[in-house]
TrEMBL record:
Keywords: Signal. This is Copper chaperone PCu(A)C. It comes from Nocardia terrae. SUPFAM superfamilies: DR1885-like metal-binding protein (SSF110087). Transmembrane segments: none annotated. It comes from the Bacteria. Pfam families: PCuAC. Gene3D superfamilies: PCu(A)C copper chaperone.
Amino acid sequence: MPRCHSFRLRTGGFARRLGAAAAITTLALLPVACSNSQTASDSTAKAAESVSMSDQWIKAADSGMSAAFGKLANNSDKPVNVVAAASPASATVELHEVAPDGAGEKTMRPKPGGFVIPAHGSITLQPGGDHMMFMGLKAPLRTGSETPITLTFSDGSTTTVTAQVRDFAGGKENYQPSGDTAAHGG
């Protein structure tokens, strides 16, 4: 419910000298002083509170690069945008997509704008598709171990999930650097 600040309209002094025009102008400005009792950030849940991740896992690797996968679900009425990720397991984590390059080959590259999770919907991060690319692993990722991943949303909120490290042979996914640091998947 809106909360309005109370103002006393004075009929003497300045308003009386300027006459009715001043009083009308003053009254016209009064609605501007009313505000919602909640701030914008209070009235809209933070993205981190609306998103959950399930079946999150990261590919086992000795060094170099790896990738994390899982299902991101949004239970809010608005789309939510994951704009960054981080983990103590690697120097950097990039949000990647697999898309055709100029020659029609599939290539992994940073996804412009990050991952958009539709309102009351979900997206699946999977080998050969959208994923979180771990670059510059700080230590081997051994099968059965776990590593935290912190997701950052466009509203600045964050959430941390824990991903299990799993063996994955995959199709043609290559999560190791190549000559141009682009990996190809299939």
